[in-house]
């Protein structure tokens, strides 16, 4: 059981889970085994639905890891859409490339190698949709960078805003304390943005959704 959803609801929702995409199943297992954090299944479902509703032509992701969410976004986006994804870990980039090649989305997904703080200022064209999923202590600055690149009416989607539930409680285990503090500060910052319509939803590990005014 997580601190966000109770066990019976989690089990009930799990019963509707589709397992028809072998590659995604494999990636979920691999990430679990190697302890590589990827978007939870329910948050990834929500992400896909938002992409299908919003129909972004240009998507930017900050934090590729093994490209699980990049591939899911590419599957959900239209044929002519592109997914640009930024990753600084060379180990993850290697894995991401292999999975992207196997996904059939290699023409839709482009990996930008390097630190987002160096890559983002070099990006010339704006985006319709930005998914922020990098190191939590960098979220505030990365939100500022993202807002420069987000078109008016564009959507920003941010993962981990409940931080395993610890953003909402006082008693936090020592290994979660620093990130929980960062996330709490970020949430105040995110919810007070005057140029965004923002909300935080209890999906997955907590999803921040902002629409640029
Ligand atoms: C939570 S994982 C991303 C998971 C991925 N979005 C998914 O759901 O499948 C975060 C990734 O962001 C990368 N990262 C963190 N900070 C970054 C930065 N400043 N620039 C580029 N990559 C970064 C990490 O190396 C890690 O692979």
CATH architecture: 3-Layer(aba) Sandwich
Give the % helix. 40-55%
Q: End-to-end distance, in Å?
A: 37 Å
CATH topology assignment:
Rossmann fold
Rounded average pLDDT: 95
Counted by DSSP, the helix tally is 8
Low-confidence stretches: none
The strand count comes to 7
User: What's the arrangement of strands in the largest beta sheet?
Assistant: 3-2-1-4-5-7-6
Which class do the helix and strand fractions yield?
alpha/beta
CATH class: Alpha Beta
- CA-atom Rg in angstroms: 16 Å
Instruction: Provide the β-strand percentage band.
Output: 15-25%
Structure explained in plain terms:
With 213 residues, the protein is an alpha/beta fold. It has helices at residues 7-14, 22-34, 41-54, 68-76, 90-103, 116-119, 139-149, 174-191, and strands spanning 58-62, 82-87, 109-113, 127-132, 150-158, 196-201, 207-212. The protein has one domain (37-212): Rossmann fold (3-Layer(aba) Sandwich), CATH 3.40.50. A 7-stranded mixed sheet has the order 3-2-1-4-5-7-6, with helices on both faces. The model has no long low-confidence stretch (mean pLDDT 95). S-adenosylmethionine binds next to helix 4, strand 2 and helix 6. S-adenosylmethionine binds at residues 37-39, 63, 65, 68-69, 86-89, 92, 115-117, 133-135, 138.
Provide tags for this entry.
single chain, 213 residues, Rossmann fold, 7-stranded mixed β-sheet, binds S-adenosylmethionine
């Amino acid at each position: 059981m997580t601190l966000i959803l109770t066990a019976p609801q989690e089990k009930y929702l799990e019963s509707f889970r589709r397992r028809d995409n072998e590659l995604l199943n494999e990636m979920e297992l691999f990430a679990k085994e190697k302890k590589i954090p990827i978007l939870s299944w329910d948050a990834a479902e929500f992400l896909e639905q938002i992409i299908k509703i919003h129909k972004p032509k240009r998507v930017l992701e900050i934090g590729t890891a093994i490209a699980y969410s990049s591939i899911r976004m590419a599957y959900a986006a239209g044929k002519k859409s592109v997914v640009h994804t930024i990753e600084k870990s060379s180990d993850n980039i290697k894995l991401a490339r292999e999975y992207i090649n196997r996904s059939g989305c290699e023409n839709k997904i482009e990996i930008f190698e390097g630190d987002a703080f160096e890559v983002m200022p070099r990006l010339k064209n704006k985006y319709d949709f930005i998914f922020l999923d990098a190191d939590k202590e960098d979220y505030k600055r990365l939100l500022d960078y993202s807002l420069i690149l987000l078109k008016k009416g564009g959507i920003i989607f941010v993962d981990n805003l409940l931080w395993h539930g610890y953003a909402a409680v006082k008693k936090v285990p020592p290994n979660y304390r620093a990130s929980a503090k960062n996330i709490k500060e970020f949430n105040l910052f995110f919810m007070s943005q005057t140029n965004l319509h923002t909300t935080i939803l209890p999906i997955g590990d907590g999803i921040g959704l902002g629409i640029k005014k």
